Amino acid sequence: MPHPARPTVTLREVAAAAGVSVATASRVLGGSARTVSAENARKVLEAASGLRYTADVAARAMRRESDAIALVADDLTTPSIAQVVAAMERQARTVDAFVTVSATGGDPGRQLETVRTVCAFRPRALVITSSWRATTAYGTRLAEELRAYERRGGRVVIYGDMEAPFDAIDVDDRDSGRLMGEHLAATGHRRIAVLAGTRERTFAVARTAGFLEGLIGGGVHPHDIRVLDCPVSRAGGYAATARLLEENAGEFDALMAVNDTIAVGALSACRAAGVDVPGRLSVTGFDDIPLAVDVTPRLTTVALPFAEIGERCIRLALTSGQPGRPGVRQTVSGRLVVRRSSGGA
Where is the HTH lacI-type domain (predicted)? Predict the structure, then answer.
């Protein structure tokens, strides 16, 4: 249904309500790099929220619900999110909608400003992915923006681990990680190194916890498990594995990575060091990206249904709902895929 036009609130009115200059209000709401005191920023944000102010871009937008479904993602360069986006586009086309995409780099402040700008264009629905731990202040302000957007007739869907009262699709990373830990323990591995990514990434923390649960439950002693932080990238996996092999040659019989990209880097480091995989060291990943079957040896991993997740996001985003009601949370789980990169200890 088309949205009725509402009176336009000007920046000058926001400034007057906040008791600051128009320039100060513009700096706060326009994302200027110039410094504004915390107190003035608070006054401006409260005034803007109370007056339901949106940036001038909204005035240039059409005064009706568009056919766009906006995706605001942390990172668009990962193979996993590429599969999700492709599935979203396919599903959106079935209802004559289209998907717009923005990336925030995992920065909470940038995420907030991106959501504020995207909502001003009045998309039909908004899908947000998040794998980073957001600060409480930014999380509260983001939730306020999203609730206001829903009050104006929009739909919000969260993909990932974000505590908010909106519809959400979440991956049970911990339980899925436990499958891999149980598998390695059952195949006789007893000395394990975990490439755990960074602790700001919620999926990495959950998968690591699942790995440990499965390993220890399968009889691996906690003292024989080493957890290493590393950048969530191929280069991060390579560097961490190279360092591990140089410092602890012969100490471990398996290496677990919290995603396939890190695992591919680990395989490259093993090859460079002359370490046989899986004869000397088993290597496992998580996600089952297309590259997992192209590397040598093919990667043992936990497969996640990224195409299904993308389709579910669109279907949920197009489902009519009541603003303010408790969010519907759907959970998907991974499945263990055993290939040649892991063997018996």
Answer: 9-64
**Residues of the chain above pLDDT 90, percent:** 53
Rounded to 5 degrees, what are φ and ψ at 156?
Answer: -120, 135
User: What is the C-alpha separation between 300 and 16, in angstroms, rounded?
Assistant: 61
The answer to whether the CB of 189 falls within 8 A of the CB of 250 is no
Burial class (CB in 10 A: 0-12, 13-18, 19+), 113: middle
| 99 pLDDT more than 80 | yes
Q: What is the CATH number for 44?
A: 1.10.260.40
CA distances for 338 relative to 17, 188, 206, 288, 304, angstroms: 62, 15, 21, 11, 14
324: pLDDT strictly greater than 70: no
| 254 and 326 both lie in a single domain | no
Interval 130-152: pLDDT, tens: 765 555 566 778 888 888 898 88
Give the pTM: 0.77
Number of Cβ within 10 Å of residue 315's Cβ equals 15
Q: Are 267 and 295 in contact (CB under 8 A)?
A: yes
Q: How many CB atoms lie within 10 A of CB 81?
A: 22
Domain of 234, in residue numbers: 173-304
Identify the sign of the CA torsion 334, 100, 3, 26: positive
